[in-house]
Amino acid sequence: MRVGIGYDIHRLAPGRRLVLGGVEIESPVGLEGHSDGDVLLHAVMDAILGAAALEDIGHHFPPSDVRFRDASSLLLLAEVISLVATHGMAVSNVDTVVVAESPVLAPHMPAMRARVAEALRVPPDRVSIKATTNERVGPEGRREAISAHAVVLLEPAR
Ligand code: MG
Hints:
The strands form 2 sheets. A 5-stranded mixed beta sheet has the order 4-1-7-5-6. It has a two-stranded antiparallel ribbon with strand order 2-3. It has helices at 39-51, 57-60, 73-86, 109-120, 138-141, and strands spanning 2-14, 18-20, 23-25, 29-31, 89-99, 127-132, 145-156. It contains 5 helices and 7 strands. A hairpin with a 2-residue loop joins strand 2 (18-20) and strand 3. By secondary structure, it is an alpha+beta fold. Bound molecules: magnesium ion.
């Protein structure tokens, strides 16, 4: 078994889509970023790469590479899963926290869990997505950004 940690933060801006866990959420502001800015999936990817000791997301998907402009982070996550599979590893489970003052994410959780689980090639009961506000302090609390934390356990691939 191998454990990994991931963290990411993206700024919120008008005129951007808000995509979290591969699910587009209706919102007047969305996440800036070279790809779709899916801060949750970026944290998950870094946790997986960290558990496998395979560098980080910036190493595999550099912002300088035009292939990843507005790319769906679900596709990048699928690439990460394929990479760790070639190293004989698979995801056992993932636990995450999204820090966002708004919107309320609870109604979107089932869809997000299903989407992330599919990309990770695990059942949804192996994926935990929790949400918290930042009590109106800090960049997340001022609605300037959304951040995410992730912990992943990798096991030998079957
Ligand atoms: Mg990112």
